[in-house]
Design goal:
The chain has 290 residues and is mostly helical. It folds into 2 domains: 1-149, Tetratricopeptide repeat domain (Serine Threonine Protein Phosphatase 5, Tetratricopeptide repeat), CATH 1.25.40; 150-290, Serine Threonine Protein Phosphatase 5, Tetratricopeptide repeat. Helix content is 66%, strand content 0%. The chain is built from 13 helices and no strands. Helix 3 packs parallel to helix 5. The two termini are 22 Å apart.
Amino acid sequence: MPHRILRACSAAAFAIGLVAMAPWAPATPAGPQLEESWRRCADGKADIAIGGCTALIQSGGESGANLAAAFFNRGIAYRRKSHYRVSAFSEEMAVRAEDNARAIADYDQAILLDPDDADAHNNRGIAYDDARRYDRAIQDFDRAIALKPGYAEALYNRGNTYRYKSQYDRANNQAVALDDTSHFDLAIRDYNQAIRLRPSYAEAYVARGVAYHDKGQYDRAIQDYDQAVRLNPMLAEAYNNRCIAYYKKGQYDRAQKDFDQTIRLEKNFGNLLVNRDRGPAEAPAHRLPG
C-alpha cells in the first residue's frame, strides 16, 4: 500500500445516495471542534471515522479538496467495516453489501469533486471487485493507471480482478471458461508490470504464482512463491500456496514443511490448502485537510 503524504486532495447490491443536509444541521465546526472532526475522520476505527467524516460532510463548511477528502476517508471506513463482517448468514452478508455500497457511493462523490484522483479510482475499483462487479472494477483500475503511470498497486489490483473474473467465469460457465485463459494471461501481464516497477513486491509474486497455478504451471508458481518467501519470510500465503503446488507435484515432504510453516505463522489462517493472496492494495493512508 502506498504511503504518500497525507493531504486533502486528492466498491454492491444497493445504491446509496449522498446524505442530504437536514435543516437542523449544526453550524460549521470551527477551531478545536473542526480539528476533532478531522481527527475522527482519519481514525483507524471504522465507526469513529464514519462519524467524524459524516459530521464534516453534513456541516456544509467543507468544499473542494477538503470535502473530497472527507468522502474518501469515509469510503475507506465503510469498506473496512464491510470486512469486519465475516458471518456467512444472509443477514450479515446483506449488511456487508450495504457497507460496501456506501463505500462506492462515497468514492463516487470524491471522484465527482476530483475526477483526476487516481487513488479514489483505485479504491473504488477494489470495492467494485468486492461486489464481484469485475468489469466496473477493471474500468476504475484502468483509469487509475492512466492518471498515475507506474501505479504498481493499481496494476496488482487489476491483475487480481482479472484472475477473480476468470475463476468466477469458470465456476459459473465452465465449458466456456476452460477454453479461454486470456484473463489469467492478462493478470500475469499486470503482475509482471507491477514487479518490474517494484522488484520487492512480495504480494505480487504470490498473486502471480496463483495465476500460474491456475494455468497448471506448478513449477513457475513455485518459483514465484520462492521469491515471495525470500522477500518476506513472514508471508503465510506464500508457504500455504507453495504447499499446494508441491502437493500437486507429489512432493509431499516439501508440502508438509510448508504446511507446518503456514500454521506457525497464521494459527487462524482459515481455509488451508486453498490458494490465497494478500488481497487488494488500498490507497492511501487517511487524508487530512491542508
